[in-house]
Design brief:
alpha/beta, Rossmann fold, seven-stranded mixed beta sheet, 12 strands, 24% helix, globular
């Protein structure tokens, strides 16, 4: 079976399991992930560093409280012509829905390059690879930015979406850290 076929089968399985995702039931686990991320950021960043986060959809850890943490510039991804970039975002700023998805993105603003990008996924492998929705937005962005800058990529998911192995191809970008509600894995 081709790698892409294996990825598609796994995507369908994970998306099917997410239909039962209960935000209230997972609130405690989300708080643990948030604390793990915050601790990691405090160890990796300097004041005013740019942090890239994401607008969560069902089944993803919600890290939007980072918007009110002092000391950093927070940015969100914006999809333009099938590529993502990050733009600064402050709580209450303008958002628009991306197509027919659950994803919200900031209205067009000046692009900014994060020092750290916190990356969501359908799942991660313990060796740092990500299974996304199949568009390759994050893999392309992280590969491009890493060539020109020192970048730290932190993958985050609920622990049940951490796998021993995932199908991987040459376009998949390896994370520097993986954070779940049960552990933090340093891969650098």
């Amino acid at each position: 079976m081709l790698i892409q076929d294996r990825k598609n089968i796994l995507r369908k399985e994970i998306l099917s399991s997410r239909k039962n995702f209960d935000v209230l039931k997972n609130e405690v686990r989300n708080k643990v992930i948030y604390r793990n991320i915050l601790t990691l950021l405090n160890n990796l960043t300097l004041p005013n560093d740019v942090i890239g986060i994401y607008w969560p959809i069902s089944g993803e850890p919600d890290l939007l409280k980072l918007l009110v943490e002092p000391g950093h510039t927070i940015s969100l991804p914006r999809i333009n012509a099938a590529e993502i970039c990050f733009v600064p975002y402050i709580l209450g700023g303008g958002l628009e829905r991306y197509g027919k998805t659950e994803i919200y993105q900031p209205v067009l603003a000046q692009e900014i390059t994060p020092k750290i990008v916190i990356v969501p996924a359908l799942g991660f492998s313990i060796d740092g690879y990500r299974l996304g929705f199949g568009k390759g937005h994050y893999d392309k962005y992280l590969t491009k930015i890493k060539q020109d800058n020192r970048l730290i990529a932190i993958g985050t998911c609920f622990h049940e979406n951490l796998f021993e192995r995932l199908p991987v191809d040459q376009y998949d970008y390896k994370m520097d850290y993986i954070v779940t509600d049960q552990l933090v894995i340093r891969l650098v």
